[in-house]
Please model this.
Amino acid sequence: MQSFPEYADLFADARHRRWTLHHVLSMTMGTDWDELSIPYTDPANSEIAMDRAPDRYRYVLERPIVLEPGTRWTYCGGATALLGRIIAKGTGKSLHAYARDMLFDPLGMGPTDWYSGRDGELIAASGIRMLPRDLARIGQLMLNGGIREGRAVVPSEWIARCTTAVAPVDEMREYGYQWYLGRFGFETASGVPRWKKSRLEAVTSAIGNGGQRLYVMPGLDLVVVSMSGNYDAPDQWVPPTRIMREVVLPTIL
Model:
């Protein structure tokens, strides 16, 4: 990748040279990377190994390619780390400072914190900390096509591109540029005949370890945020999903 000339020695493999920002944004780099089947408490987890490496970017870029780039989605915090580095290099600012200037402050967000790794580099994939209402502001921006109070904070064309499916995640979801795309299944309020109760709504979502969720549902003009501390728990996805299906959606419909 042209964005990382300092690692030219790693691009002897022609498949590495075919990497583009599209592959990084959509997590379709095709590298040997495992964050989902190995707990984050295990140093063998790829993101944990990256955070502990002397050079996180070299660690990501030197992973063996096991699939042709662009052919399959694999969740990869390393891809987000590369994006953070590209932004910092291109703007001459830290990732946090740039985010504050271009996104957080224009949205009127409160204080935020961004954790660093042992190497002093910001942890782009999982280090940001903010209040639930401020995460909701990001969701509202997505819902409004990048507009806040008449001002274009993010180009609407980029919002549309980010939420365009690139690769399947599973039978229910697809992935765009750093966003999950899918449909949320739930039952509407009681009193409706059972055969009419089932309903699906399109949803764009951001998912974080521990139960952090941001749901954006354009068809309902709805943004929902949940935050909890069930870090590394195997069933951490259950509470926010049940809250949406059994409380939030049946209540408003």
Summary: Strands lie at 113-114, 128-129, 147-148, 151-152, 167-168, 173-175, 180-187, 198-208, 212-217, 222-226.
